[in-house]
Design a protein that fits this description.
The complex is a heterodimer of chains A (128) and B (323).
Chain A: H1 3-23, H2 34-44, E1 50-55, E2 61-66, E3 69-76, E4 79-84, E5 89-93, E6 96-100, E7 108-112, H3 115-125
Antiparallel strand pairs in A: 1-2, 2-3, 3-4, 5-6, 6-7
Chain B: H1 10-32, H2 40-74, H3 83-106, H4 108-114, H5 125-128, H6 145-149, H7 154-169, H8 181-186, H9 190-196, H10 214-219, H11 244-259, H12 266-274, H13 288-298, H14 312-322
Helix pairs in contact in B: 1-7, 3-4, 3-7, 4-11, 11-12, 13-14
The chains are: A alpha+beta (128), B mainly alpha (323).
Transmembrane segments (chain A): 6-25
Keywords (chain A): Membrane, Transmembrane, Transmembrane helix
Keywords (chain B): Lipid metabolism, Membrane, Oxidoreductase, Transmembrane, Transmembrane helix
Chain lengths: 128, 323
């Protein structure tokens, strides 16, 4: 196949699929509730015992306290990603926190929190 | 010895079919309200990985091709290009695919290339195109050497390899349940390959087949999809990025960070490169055998069911080692 035609097909195909998915509502983020946050955490870490879950008001992140410490669960497209809070930096962000994980595959996430939530989460994220 | 043999680049010619099939699958899901899920950034990442795979073939493909042509120069055998020979080459190349794929899950150096194909939490036709950019660096082209030394022309070997990849495109879907029983018995199908993409303990390290599922049945790695254990797609530790560069290289970076830690023995450094994924020198990570052991500790009723039958002895050893 001539390279120019292949290029047009690939670029056009990616652009077309992107537009179609976005315009049909496939860019929505996963919405968390306390129950689904628990289920999602155990999907990622089935061996953990959860103490409690705090879901952000916007429903896109949850702080999970487990027997061995704390963890962060957040919406990742239509799915979720979770990490134990072991090796990370918490940086203030105009919309809440930015958490940096020192992990090339999961570099950072911005957690949207209002001022009251931010203080509460900061307290929960501090090492016991 | 015939050098001037050409075969079409089947994968490139299949690109329009890939795009049309993705649109058809999306419409099917949208209309029926079942049969899979699409998410914009996930799909775009997969498509960019597919485009990058083609680009890496243009940039690095000459390395494998030069190696194959060198083998072709030294072999005294030439089986020609008749239809029966092409069919035989296709079947043997599928056996080659089975082993490369199995190495891809059991040797971290090869997993570093293959992991990106499993990095989506979705399973649709775009997932099929989430392909590696770094296959050349795994040196798995050596597994094709026997075929060429047996007298299969390199161009034919690459052609049937392309057909193999094209076959595997359509099995990346939830829109098809089960195929007829005879087909499920012999061929790789959406159901078998869904299980392969599962991060559930049951489905770890199973169903490596490309086209013929018989290889898994012969070599003891077949696990049928279970109705009561819905496949959860993705990685044991799912990644948190849609950035194609991070998707393509994250495991290579992980190998580098692990193998260059201070205070390790040479054996431990090599194990971080070549042992099965999940190896750690201090036991801080779980291998797939340990994940299965922990699952069985939580769900003893699953002992002896598909995906857990063969591992009892292995699991006992693993648990004993841990304790």
């Amino acid at each position: 196949m001539p390279l120019e035609i292949l290029l047009v097909l690939v670029v056009g195909g990616i652009a077309g699929v992107t537009l179609l998915l976005h315009l049909t509502g496939r860019s929505r983020l996963h919405e968390l509730t306390p129950k689904t946050a628990q289920d999602q955490w155990l999907r990622h870490f089935p061996n953990d015992s959860i103490i409690d879950v705090t879901v952000a008001t916007d429903g896109h992140a949850a702080l999970v306290r487990i027997e061995t410490g704390a963890g962060l669960l957040w919406s990742f497209g239509a799915d979720t990603v979770a990490r134990h809070l072991l090796d990370f930096d918490r940086i203030d962000h105009p919309q809440g926190f930015e958490v940096q994980f020192h992990d090339f595959s999961t570099p950072r996430v911005v957690i949207h929190l209002d001022e009251t939530e931010r203080r509460h989460w900061q307290h929960l994220m501090e090492p016991a | 010895m015939t050098d001037q043999i050409t075969f079409p680049d089947a994968v490139q010619w299949a690109v329009p079919v890939f795009i049309a099939a993705i649109l058809a699958e999306f419409l099917w899901i949208a209309i029926k309200g079942r049969g899979g899920r699409y998410e914009t950034r996930d799909a775009v990442t997969s498509l960019i990985m597919g485009a990058g795979n083609i680009a890496s073939g243009f940039l690095l493909g000459f390395i494998a091709y030069a190696f194959f042509m060198w083998l072709w120069q030294i072999t005294p055998l030439d089986l020609g290009t008749s239809i029966p020979i092409i069919i035989l080459c296709f079947v043997l190349d599928d056996l080659r695919y089975y082993w490369v794929h199995r190495f891809g899950h059991r040797i971290r150096w090869v997993w570093a290339s293959h992991v990106n194909h499993h990095s989506s939490q979705h399973y649709n036709l775009t997932t099929a195109l989430r392909q590696t950019w770094t296959y050349t660096f795994t040196f798995m082209m050596v597994v094709r050497a026997p075929l060429i030394l047996l007298g299969f022309h390199p161009a034919m070997v690459l052609f049937v390899g392309g057909l193999n990849l094209i076959y595997q495109f359509w099995i990346h879907t939830e829109a098809i349940g089960k195929m007829p029983r005879w087909f499920e018995a012999v061929m790789n199908t959406p159901s078998h390959h869904r299980a392969h993409h599962g991060r559930n303990a049951r489905y770890l390290d199973c169903n490596y087949a490309g086209v013929f599922i018989i290889w898994d049945k012969i070599f003891g790695t077949f696990v049928p999809e279970q109705e009561d254990d819905k496949v959860d797609y993705g990685l044991v530790h799912n990644i948190g990025t849609f950035n194609p560069l991070r998707v393509a290289f994250h495991e290579w970076v992980g190998i580098w960070k692990d193998a260059t830690q201070p205070g390790l023995t040479t054996g431990q450094r090599l194990a971080y490169c070549f042992a099965p994924p999940g190896y750690s020198h201090d036991g801080s990570r779980d291998s797939s055998a340990q994940i299965k052991a922990k699952h069985l500790a939580r769900h003893p009723k699953d002992r002896g069911t598909p995906g857990f039958e063969q591992c009892d002895a292995e699991l006992s050893a693993s648990v004993a080692k841990q304790s």
